Amino acid sequence: MTAVPDAKPMIEIRDVHKYYGDYHALRGINAVINAGEFFSLLGPSGCGKTTLLRTIAGFEDISSGAILIDGKDMHEVPANRRPTNMVFQSYAIFPHLTVEQNVGFGLRKDPRSPAEKAKAVAEALAMVGLTGFGTRAAHALSGGQRQRVALARALILKPKVLLLDEPLSALDKKMRETMQEELIKLQRQVGITFILVTHDQEEALVMSDRIAVMFEGEIAQLDDPETLYRRPNSRRVAEFIGVMNFVPGKVLSETAGRIELDVQGLGRCQIAPAQAPAGGRATGEISVGFRPETLTILYEGQAASDRECMGTIAEVVYFGDMTYYDVKLDGVDRPVRLSMRNVPGRPVLDLGVRTRIAWSPGALVLFR
Amino acid sequence: MPDSAKGGRFTRSQAFSGYVMISPPFIYAVLMLGAPLLAVIILSFLTDGSGAERIIRQFTTANYVEALGDPLNRLLWMRSVFVSLMVTLATVILAFPIAYYISFVVRPEKKSLWLFLITIPFWTSYLIRVFLWKVILGYSGVVNSALLGLGLIDEPLQWINYNVGAVILTLAHAYAPFAILPIFVALEKIDRSLLEAGQDLGESKAMTFLRVTLPLAMPGVIGATLIVFIPTVGDYVTPQLVGGPEGRLIANMIQLQFLKLDNYPLGSAISVITMVIVGVISLLFLLANRRFLRGQR
What is the ipTM of this complex? Predict the structure, then answer.
């Protein structure tokens, strides 16, 4: 899942700004995307992720800064001469052409013979699992099939970078999960750099080597999925990716290797500096975050491996394999959410039940 | 009583309410279009009389023989089709860039204003617009006066009026909005991401236009072509007013037969033959372009 060490940069984005009139859509974007990487731009709608993708594709000019692809400055290079291909959100399948003609659209200037081109088209269709669909009219395809045609049409040109603009958002849940896995396999198979735009944090976590989380035209955090999930550098990133509980606390003392906290309801504890990814040094009122799965309900005879507290079940949400509980921890103002895997010997608890809960200072994240 | 139950169900069905809705325009169309058309076809097979008995109710194909045998009619048909084709060509070629401009360049909130401006010529009667062209192109018209005044010519140009060229120019102007609208609608329907996809796949803007925009606009172009071609073949006001002797078209002959020579059967036969010519050309045109009309979602 982590980026290949000493990977060579494929795309360099240097202090890119984009204005639409007075609207500042991209506010100083800096990022290096490595060759062969599956990179995602994640953020809510209007955060500039699609704009950034379109500037890489060459559909939008940038107001300042530079975009380099494979070491070459893309300034003034039109979309049709960039080594990128795009899978559009609407798929943009040409309705007047057949599947074959769509896939072979970009091969007009290819010097190969018609027979060789036809073979390349057949191979591209096979790669996306559409063998035998070549002569179908494009408008007679389902959403998932259109998506595959769009992929084949882009990949047949062997681009250096494949750009995917929310490619899965129009598919139903099952199809989306299938396509996620297929995209990952396909990316490993062809070894092309993929840049995916998505607003779906789960999709980004599942598919990406690294993710840039964007808010309001800026990259808030750029990290691999695990770091992003475990050590979000701001409350905003933490809330956008998954669920995070926040509890007020105080920094009591701070040394190079230790931060001593007093967390509401949980008491005094020590954490490592890495658990404060936002950086900075501040004493006094802070907030402490932890994910639902880092709290564990203790059943009869179980002991906490680290720390323990008491709480009352305030809400039960049953999900089949999981149960989510909102728990009122003793001494904490607001209920916190915790999740438990439903396994034999762990009955789902009822509302109002008093229970012991295990937690660990190692799972806390400090936000200043 | 099963029958009345069935009838009751029918009057409450969706199909019934559909028939009720379309019947007024349907009846109107039958009375105003179908009936006269039938009358013309019947007339064309009757015998022309004289005096009190203008039309003798006797079946004959003599009108068709006479109509087709007359070299003047044949010349007029050829000229009419030629003029219509030229008008259609000129109109569609001129209309396309305008429709393209409105669809692709004009900002969305300004589009309806542009369409509104294009319909302004309809505010004046067709006849007045034709007369205006007479004023522009006439012997002592705007063009000639201007050129004379500037000293570019010594005597008024005669070739700009009362000929086939003037008919084509006038008709092309009159029918331009009819051509712009269907092309505009077809262009509006094109998903803009298709054009980006064309460029993304390595084509220049010009090639993307040829490979994506134009084929997708073809249904509109075909519609525009038929909308202009079909009525211009039968136009008689414009050739009458600006055509001069060698600008007369087949419609003027039909008018002559009906209103001046009082020969309804022959006039009807010429009309029917004209309809057949227009129908056949339109059909051939549609067949030649049928690949553009196949189901595009």
Answer: 0.84
